[in-house]
Design goal:
The complex is a heterodimer. Chain A has 14 helices and no strands. Chain A is mainly alpha-helical. Chain A has two domains: 68 residues, no CATH class; 232 residues, Orthogonal Bundle (MetI-like fold), CATH 1.10.3720.10. In chain A, helix 5 crosses helix 9, helix 5 crosses helix 13 and helix 7 packs across helix 12. Chain A is globular and about 75 Å long. Chain B has two domains: 92 residues, no CATH class; 208 residues, MetI-like (MetI-like fold, Orthogonal Bundle), CATH 1.10.3720.10. Chain B contains 14 helices and no strands. In chain B, helix 3 packs across helix 14 and helix 4 packs parallel to helix 7. Chain B is flat. The chains are: A mainly alpha, B mainly alpha. At the A-B interface, helix 1, helix 2, helix 3, helix 6 and helix 7 of A face helix 1, helix 2, helix 4, helix 5 and helix 6 of B.
Chain lengths: 319, 308
């Protein structure tokens, strides 16, 4: 049994295209009775998850679509896009959507670029390399609620960052109650997410074929050229993934804002989730549904664009 | 001839020196970042060992809303201190003995998170196996739907979750958090991705030897996925240990809120306590991190390459 496991582990390592081909052949061959039975059983394994996902995510989503199109859950008269227009014209929604968009537009590129830099730094043979990895990753593990106190101390009107800025003659800033609030949140976001992105980039960097880089060095390519023409190409699918994950995480930044400032934050950090929370508070199903559908549409479009962009830039590289 | 080799040697030496300078610079930059990354965590821990009076002397300005001018001295400015004047465990003692509220909320966190981790993995193991065996077009479509669901932010998924919880009248009970968590597609996606890398021939060989689906699942797939399951368990745990959105919307009873929400609602007088509680709340994920960092890294790496 043990040797079998070893054998299997070995095979997993070597598994790639040949297996895919054999899988294809398998499905092409005619279905025998035992296979039909196996298929049935495999659906049985799938069924608990499928039932749960249908019940908690998919079916109610159709209800959400329905709710977004009627005037209220009791009357149920179709009003088509009236709810969407109403939400779209809502000042709070505009502010929340605008802030969220602005935040994501700044924070996501920063999160991608800085984490790539961190990963490239750890590519060099520096001492304490694995310790550095641990340090960069540790904020990911720490619950936001635990560090919120220190964050308040750091960014308070009388806090440390103002002291440091004061050394350079900068006037005191009330970070969390001014337009600088978004800067604080971006810093907190980067602090929390850079490590995760860095790990993804480290894995991708180490999978770039070494001989290719060696050839480039022999051909006396400059480091910048190696980065631009070789590494970036191989990283493109990882960049896509990191961007998507950072985007999703940027929508989760409500946690940080809520824990730092409560339900009623300064105007510039009033996010989509705040808007949704208020709508939940009022049980305004129409508004909730319309906002959720708009948000999901935006997500689908954004992810679609990212996939297309990746296809365009990374098509000449395999893997 | 000798001259030439000498020159080459010098060149090599110079190149080496330049490399060394570069390494030094990068190390310094990395160290700078490391300090920035670690500072909030270390400060929280060290501050938890300060006595109540030390805390209020240092941070009175931050957390006091009014000037009380009572017995405790409130500093003019905020002193950020790395090391307490006197290490004191008084905060921890108070948390453990005198204010059960925090411990109760800690227990809330445990009871919300642990069942989600365990049962999400159980459900996902079966589902991943289902997605791996006898793949067909329908399954691929369903898998794609799982990926889309996984990518949706809370702002979208919480609305359907809320509606269902309302219909099943489990709103304001722990089930409203447990059930959507257990059926979350996240673990299914990751585990299926891993399981699909097991060569079909291995399972077919077992089948020819007379193994049933259950035996293949139990004796081949699960043992091979042990590492992946550990990685995913860690990822699920940190995500839910940090939850804020779900309890705020699905649990209106604040008594049931986990510590991740409750910690932000400290009173002025309890800042010192809050540091101790914050540190206690960090302990489980940090322990998991220290023992399972490699699993975590592996898990994150598997997450990459969403198209695969």
């Amino acid at each position: 049994m043990r040797s079998l496991k070893k054998d299997v582990a070995e095979k997993i390592k070597n598994a790639d295209k040949p297996v895919k081909a054999s899988a294809k052949k398998r499905t092409e061959s005619k279905m025998t009775a035992s296979k039909r039975r196996g298929t049935g059983i495999s659906w049985l394994y799938l069924s608990p998850s499928l039932a749960g996902v249908l019940l908690f995510f998919v079916l109610p989503f159709f209800v959400v679509v329905f709710y977004s199109l009627v005037d209220n859950p009791i009357n149920m008269e179709f009003v088509f896009f009236e709810n969407f227009v109403r939400v779209f014209k809502n000042a709070a929604f505009q502010q929340a959507a605008g802030n969220t968009l602005k935040f994501s537009l700044v924070a996501v590129p920063l999160a991608v670029i800085l984490s790539l830099l961190l990963a490239m730094m750890l590519e060099y043979k520096i001492p304490l390399k694995s310790q550095f990895r641990t340090f960069f990753l540790s904020p990911m593990m720490v619950p936001i609620a635990s560090v919120v106190l220190i964050w308040q101390v750091l960014f308070h009107y009388n806090g440390l960052s103002n002291e440091i800025l004061g050394l350079f003659g900068v006037a005191k800033i009330d970070f969390l109650k001014s337009s600088y609030a978004q800067v604080v949140i971006i810093i907190l976001f980067l602090w929390k997410n850079l490590g995760y992105n860095m790990i993804l980039f480290m894995a991708a960097l180490s999978s770039i074929p070494k001989d290719l880089l060696e050839v480039a060095v022999l051909e006396s390519a400059k480091p910048f050229q190696i980065f631009w023409y070789i590494k970036l190409r191989y990283l493109s699918s990882t960049i896509l993934f990191v961007t998507i994950m950072s985007l999703i995480n940027s929508f989760k930044v409500f946690r940080e804002i809520y824990l730092l400032t409560g339900n009623y934050p300064y105007d510039t950090i009033y996010m989509m989730q705040h808007f949704m929370n208020n709508a939940f508070g009022q049980l305004d199903y129409q508004r909730l549904s319309a906002a959720a559908i708009m948000m999901s549409a935006v997500m689908v479009v954004l992810i679609g664009i990212l996939f297309l962009a990746e296809n365009h830039f990374g098509k000449d590289v395999e893997g | 001839m000798k001259q030439q080799s000498n020159n080459a040697y010098k060149k090599k030496k110079r190149k080496q020196a330049r490399g060394l300078v570069k390494i030094c610079m990068i190390t310094v930059i990395a160290a700078f970042f490391a300090v920035l990354f670690l500072m909030p965590i270390v400060l929280t821990i060290t501050n938890s060992f300060m006595s109540a009076s030390e805390i209020s002397a240092n941070y009175g300005q931050v957390f006091a809303t009014t000037d009380t001018g009572g017995k405790t001295f409130i500093a003019e400015r905020v002193n950020l201190k790395f090391i307490p004047d006197m290490v004191s465990f008084s905060q921890y003692l108070t948390v453990l003995l005198k204010s059960p509220d925090y411990l109760f909320k800690f227990w809330n966190s445990v009871i919300l998170v642990v069942p989600i981790v365990v049962f999400q993995l159980l459900v996902a193991s079966g589902a991943a196996y289902g997605f791996t065996r006898y793949r067909g077009r329908l399954k691929e479509i369903i898998f794609f739907i799982y990926i889309i669901l996984m990518l949706m932010p809370y702002q979208v998924t919480l609305v359907p979750n809320y509606l269902v919880s309302d219909w099943l009248s489990i709103l304001d009970t722990r089930w409203a958090i447990w059930l959507p968590g257990i059926f979350s597609p996240f673990a299914v996606y990751l585990l299926a991705k891993y399981m699909r890398r097991i060569p079909v021939s291995v399972m077919e060989a077992a089948q020819i030897d007379g193994a049933g689906e259950w035996q293949i699942f139990k004796n081949i797939c699960m043992p091979l996925c042990k590492g992946a399951i550990c990685s995913i368990a860690i990822l699920i745990f940190i995500d839910y240990w940090n939850m804020v959105e779900q309890p705020l919307i699905l649990l209106s009873d604040e008594e049931m809120h986990p510590l991740s929400v409750f910690l932000s609602k400290i009173n002025e007088g309890e800042v010192g306590l809050a540091f101790a509680v914050a540190t206690i709340y960090m302990v489980p994920p940090i322990l998991i991190f220290l023992y399972g960092e490699d699993y975590l890294v592996e898990g994150i790496t598997y997450q990459g390459g969403i198209k695969g």
